[in-house]
Amino acid sequence: MATVDIAALNDRPVREVMTEYVLGIVPDASIEVALRMMAEAHVCHLPVVDHRGCLGLLHETDVLWRLWSTGGTNRPRCDAVIGTPVPCVDADDTAQTAARHMTRIGTDVTLVLDDGQVVGIVTATNLVRLLATG
Q1: Which end of the chain is more exposed for a tag (fewer CB within 10 A), N or C?
Q2: Between 132 and 103, the higher pLDDT residue
Q3: 87 with 111: CB under 8 angstroms?
Q4: Ranges of H-type helices in the chain
Q5: Domain range enclosing 19
Q6: Longest dimension (CA), the chain
Q7: How much is the pTM?
Q8: CA 12 to chain centre
Q9: Domain of 110: which CATH number?
Q10: pLDDT in tens, 68-119
């Protein structure tokens, strides 16, 4: 059985682990539209963005909880459900840095920035895939 050098995996730059395609949504969109986008794109997180940049992250579980807890009668806009502050790491940070950051703030996702611009997203799934494939 081959052994995996965990230290080498941990030292991989986030830019090699992240998903480059980042789907976002505007703050005044309905959460129904957000859920539809998530389902069609097979993602669980959407950055909520406007002309100023990323305002927060919309998590599928938060949207579903909001709909369930109100019996589906209260249908807020995306900006009413977002989580802030936005978790971010630098594209040159290591996978371990991203994992520690996510653990520290209690999330399963972080945006990846390069010179202040969103260039990707790292989820727990990305980190598990790194461990599984080496």
Answers
A1: N
A2: 103
A3: yes
A4: 6-10, 31-41, 60-69, 95-105, 124-133
A5: 14-133
A6: 55
A7: 0.82
A8: 19
A9: 3.10.580.10
A10: 877 766 678 888 888 778 889 999 999 999 999 999 999 999 999 998 888 9
